[in-house]
Amino acid sequence: MGNILRSLQPQQQQQQEPLDPHGLAPDAAAIAALTRDLGSFESSSMVPEGLGQHVTSSKKAQINWYKCILEAYRNATPPRTPAEAAQLVATALNWIPRVDLEGILEFYNFPIPTSAAASSNQLPRALPDGVQFVLNTLPVNAKCIGDGDGFTAYVAVMDDPRESENVPQKVYEMVTERTQARIRRDYDRADTLRSTIDEAGYKIIIRSGSEILARKYRIRMRGIDAPELKMPYGKESKDALVKLIGGKSSRIYVYEQDQFGRYVGDIYCDSVFIQEQMLKNGHAWYFKNYDSRREFLEWERKARAACQGFWLNNPEKPWDWRRDERNGRHITTEVY
């Protein structure tokens, strides 16, 4: 740490230059202020007094942040510009709430790196009736699509204030501990912590070359019912959904949770209403027992008349198939 701190000491500034809030000239302030605070933290375990005015998390959380920043500085080439220092801090803390990450960068007058820049995925001004909240997901992994009406999606915590506010403190602590374990090259401990984070409903995901924390959501598409995988046309229905959303980010309007804990919602991808496409192309049934939208019925009727998808044959209703499986063959149906 000593060599790093010495390499970051500010050069002599002319007296006529204005001072920033940290008492340093602007050209040197961005890096030198962080250097000073890291040196102070290393000796006293105290975070900067004014930081609390820029972030929302507890002092305990702030101490964990500075541990990660300090370790990152120890293991990195000293940044030469405020932009490089900002990128180092953002990488070290890319798992914390976005509002807090931007608060730290603002505290040091650092620029906000592209990876931490404000997301355009904002909630609409007026949500449809019944919508509880909106999810803006990371690209959906094709392997996470279970069938034609269900999949698993992940939402980046740092991109969504609602998510960042609801992460359990224990999860944040495990992420911090895992980061420190990786810095120590204790990969067994890091892998164990990663598994525990997964069990808590979160996942460490690589985005743009950096690790981020994401929350896991099991999704059930509202108003449609696709063939089960073991049914005729089950694989074709799943493949159709993979083509529509696989590898792409989606926007999900969540209405409720079902009895299996899945989030039931309307899915949009590339401005396309996914349920509409599944119905129009004969890849799913209209689930009229759970939905009253007339357009869904009309889309199904047109697909049936045109013999689209499974309508080319005489398909069995998936709810009838599940009932017969339960009553006759007693085979457990997988829920995605």
Automatic annotation (TrEMBL):
Region Disordered, annotated ranges: 1-23
Any single Pfam family the record assigns to this protein: SNase
Stretches assigned to the TNase-like domain: 206-313
InterPro entries attached to this UniProt entry: SNase_OB-fold_sf, Staphylococal_nuclease_OB-fold, tRNAsynth_Ia_anticodon-bd
Any one of the GO BP annotations: tRNA aminoacylation for protein translation
Coiled-coil ranges per UniProt: none
One GO MF term attached to the UniProt entry: ATP binding
Name used for this protein in its record: TNase-like domain-containing protein
Organism encoding this protein: Triticum aestivum
